[in-house]
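Supplementary Methods. Inverse-folding protocol.

Structures were first reduced to a discrete structure-token string of length 336. This string, shown here, constituted the complete conditioning input.
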């Protein structure tokens, strides 16, 4: 079976490596163009080894069209003479002409338990919405967005402090395992797929930088989900306000929702930095310094890692050495 793998970034790479390690006949790899400062095109997805590098090391030819749906992109794909497309986080919606080109069609490795979270960012949206379970579904690709019949799916728990980047690593390896399972089934004959329940469909649209702005009037749990969901991109952010100083943009990398302080000043405003304290140790988690910030709800947010504009990522303890807390220090929007 002549297979072309289409994908970009860290979610796709384990599937390509698994196909190559299993001796599957990968005749070509299609991945998005590399992004650099001199061009607008290309992918912003996080990469590890890089799909093109993995393919080149295995002697597999690579195509990186600006769009697979152009005549040039379609011609490059046709030159591989694929029987099956295996797609994982490619980053472009395939037009019917692309889907129809391989004789056995195309399958997609999708990082959710469909029909939940169709779209570009299913892992982040699962965390944003407070899901405790997600998974990977392999589907047949149809013209509808992630709407094809389901061939197999498997679930995984979402850990309480897990970021999108961390969860993606686990789901990527699950996706690779399920892809090999589906290929073995296809080699034995057609697989009867299961139609998705249209009444259960939810969407997971692309993330935007604007989604990163922290609203400190939200409860601590909502802010915690936002910080976790937007790591590694586009990241959650706020502005550090000091009396008499210009607001400083800060990326918030790690937070904990609660616990409440034993003594809390009355009538505090959302975003006010209440204290610098150590988070009580629990289980295997050691105690660490945090900045305690007021927010909506009954418990504050405890920031343990952050990154001031133009500086490296640092612990709360490191930040506090450079900016010892003073009355009036707070986080909030740039203006206001």
């Amino acid at each position: 079976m002549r297979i072309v793998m289409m994908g970009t970034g860290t979610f796709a790479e384990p599937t390509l490596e698994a196909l190559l390690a299993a001796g599957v006949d990968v005749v070509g790899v299609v991945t998005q163009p590399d992004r650099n400062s001199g061009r607008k095109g290309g992918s912003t997805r996080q990469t590890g080894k890089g799909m093109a590098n993995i393919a080149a090391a295995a002697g597999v030819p690579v195509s990186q069209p600006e769009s697979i749906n152009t005549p040039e992109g379609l011609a490059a794909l046709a030159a591989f003479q694929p029987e099956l497309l295996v797609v994982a986080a490619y980053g472009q919606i395939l037009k019917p002409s692309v889907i129809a080109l391989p004789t056995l069609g195309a399958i997609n490795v999708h990082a959710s338990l469909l029909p939940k979270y169709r779209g570009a960012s299913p892992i982040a949206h699962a965390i944003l919405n407070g899901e405790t379970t997600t998974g990977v579904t392999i589907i047949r690709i149809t013209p509808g967005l992630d709407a094809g019949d389901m061939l197999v799916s498997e679930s995984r728990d979402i850990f309480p402090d897990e970021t999108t980047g961390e969860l993606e690593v686990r789901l990527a390896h699950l996706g690779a395992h399920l892809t090999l399972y589906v290929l073995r089934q296809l080699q034995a004959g057609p697989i009867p797929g299961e139609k998705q329940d249209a009444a259960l469909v939810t969407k997971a649209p692309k993330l935007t930088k604007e989604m990163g702005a922290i609203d400190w009037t939200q409860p601590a749990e909502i802010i915690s989900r936002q910080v976790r969901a937007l790591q590694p991109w586009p990241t959650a952010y706020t502005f550090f306000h000091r009396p008499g100083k210009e607001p400083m943009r800060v990326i918030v990398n790690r937070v904990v929702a609660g616990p409440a302080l034993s003594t809390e000043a009355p009538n505090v405003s959302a975003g006010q930095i209440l204290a610098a304290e150590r988070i009580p140790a629990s289980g295997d988690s050691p105690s660490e310094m945090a900045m305690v910030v007021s927010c909506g709800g009954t418990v504050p947010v405890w920031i343990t890692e952050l990154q001031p504009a133009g500086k490296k990522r640092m612990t709360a303890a490191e930040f506090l050495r450079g900016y010892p807390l003073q009355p009036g220090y707070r986080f909030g929007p740039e203006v206001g």
